[in-house]
Task: structure prediction
Amino acid sequence: MRPDIRDILARVSRPDRYVGGEVGSRVKDWERCDVRFCLVFPDVYEIGMSHLGLSILYHLINDRDGMVAERAFTPWADMEAALREKGMKLFSLESYRELGAFDVIGFSLASELSATNVLTTLDLAGIPLRAADRTDAHPLIIAGGPCTSNPGPMAPFFDAIVIGDGEEVTVQLAECIRDTKRDGIGRRDLLDRLGRIRGIAVQGRDGQAQGMNRAIVADLDRAPFPEKPVVAHKATQERLAVEAARGCARGCRFCQAGYIYRPVRQRSEDTATAISCAGLAATGREDFSFLSLSIGDWAPLSATLKGVHEGCPGMPINASLPSMRVESLSDAIIAELGAARAQSFTLAPEAGTERMRRFINKGNVDDDLFASVERVFSAGFSKIKLYFMVGLPTETAADIDGIVTTANRCLDIGKKYHKRPDVTVSTSTFVPKAHTPFQWDRQIGIEETLAIQRECKRRLRRPGLYYRWHDAEQSFLEGVLSRGGAELADAIEAAWRAGARFDGWDECFSLARWREAFAACGIVPETYLEARDRAAPLSWDAFGIGPDPVFLQRERDRAEELAFTPDCTSGACSQCGMCDFDAIKNRMAHVDAPDETPVAPPEQRVTSHESRVTAFRYRLHYTKADRAVFLGSLETLDAIRRGVRAAGFPLCYSEGYHPRARISAGPACPVGVESQDECADIELFEAVAPEQIVQRLQGRLPEGMAVCAAALLPEGAPSIADAIEAVRYEVSGLPVVIDVAGACAAFAQAPSVLAVRIRKGKRREVDIKPLIAELAVRPDGVVGVAVRNQTPALRMGEILTAVFGLNDEALRHVRVRKVAVEWCDTRAE
Result:
């Protein structure tokens, strides 16, 4: 790790966001690659690493010779400030190269509220914000993702925009850049070439958009998908995600994704099962999920869940699903979810009354919902989440009443099966998105949203009912940015220059800042939420992204009639214009005749812990260096658990609905501290040669972590916490103005030494003298410190401050290294 990066990571609160080195990450020979991508997700690491599209493109590019893809994320405020203070450019996770060194920087735009994060990333990379200001010396800046369905507001910041599916376009784009570099032509000629690729929109020489019409993957079974995805140090979704289907033909009239991703393309049972089993084996994940806009419509769902459980025997594997249409839930699906019953189950009624559900083309009635809730609670789930929208066109007070009534009825059902069931109601404000039948409708304002939220808060107060809502002001801004054109770019930049960052985060968002930016640019944001003239062209019509506007207008009329438009995958074509009926058409997964064999719940398929009473406990000794020193204790323990599973060892778990791996760790090594002697105990159901543990864990832990020894502990050996007597450190790099030897001597002679300890915001003084077994300076100036093992652990920063009088700034420049663990006499080697 570069010293300047090590220094800057010591200054921030979450350094694990910026270190890389994860299992599954790819570092390729830079010089042997003709085309170099940096894939950027404009949010923090743990959110970006939960984004499946980023993972697909990362492996798609890196699987090709002569191409490399690395990753970067928008740094949090403390990291941004540290980079600016040091005058450093934003760097990639794999090679720590500055983003300006890449040929292409590709942004995944998943949310309108990440707009200012794009500008933060570009500015920290030293790249002009506007495409018009860039030269041949700058990387090509490209955007893709669902927010490009209306490219206008962000278009001035990008050289090119990928419209539609990114897999095939990315390869063509890379080949075009390679050829352009070979031919030695400039940026303008490159853009002209890119504009001829279907699915890439650029600004032509005449200032008009060219290269429109979306790119599409015709057959999902043939589409690339990572079987060995990067295992994030920390992610908001700690599970393996497998895309089961793309597109939806249900025709929910509010759902932008359901229209722009048509037609439906489903993966087969065999392909999905193979991808899932390979991914679980490679990552050591315990949880997986099948993703789809309407997962209940994927006919092989139950069979594939069963196949994954059977393909990963001997280990707890938990399945979870995205929110489901209430009428698509079956007993077979619930049976396959296994240990996920300790979590909550999510259903999406969307609206509180049958009238409103007909209006939005949801084909279910109240009885469907309550039957599904009955299934969920009776199967062992004690928590249910219900998603609703408020502010839909034609909404009345009766529709809000329906949300309250529905929630109460669901709780009553839960009380039949559980003493304390939980029903959480979540509401979001309807945003009339482009390419939907409601794209002409108005969006309710902030005060209207707040009034509805107050009513729901007032009426959803029964014990067991919980209410969550999306911020009204954030929904307002989302509506403005999703319905505007290029004229909004000035306001986006003005808000960014005024300090707008991470607008999707409640603690960072400020509507006042945005209102000032809109006013400075002469924009009245409320006008963007008003109803549109259905006869007038819309700014996004020209890009050839969504369905035929005539079809959308017809669907809007049918909504007024409360007419239901059936799913075209099993009925007549709805004439939406998204298929060519040759390559681009609905592709449904084939389903064999159902297996009538009774299916045992997944937790019963894993050999019972009660029948496998013999457990073998091993003590692992490992090192943490380089990138791994910035992983916290929880991230380190998670990495060990996943590594042991990925190596195929039969790890012991606790009993119950939510089994936990039997792994325990020694005293946590402070973040940023290198260690030559870390330890952890693992319990296995089978005896394994210790050298096999060391060998098979190689390459299955993050870069910088390495198991160097393993030992089988005798029966009855003390726990790792009881077996450790002290931890020994070496400290170097103390300020030269400090009399190190004198301070050590003073410590030895003092009857007590007080240190300030701050825990959970509370400050108190403790005597650290009895907790230090040894403190002495060597002839080379290195200080040896032995800290007795106790709880709570004494932090090295507390010791160095008390003994040497160091402040926070001085502590950042001191190097601490953990060199050994000292064991009690009763230890098992």
Q: What stands out?
A: Residues 568 and 574 are 6 Å apart (CA to CA).
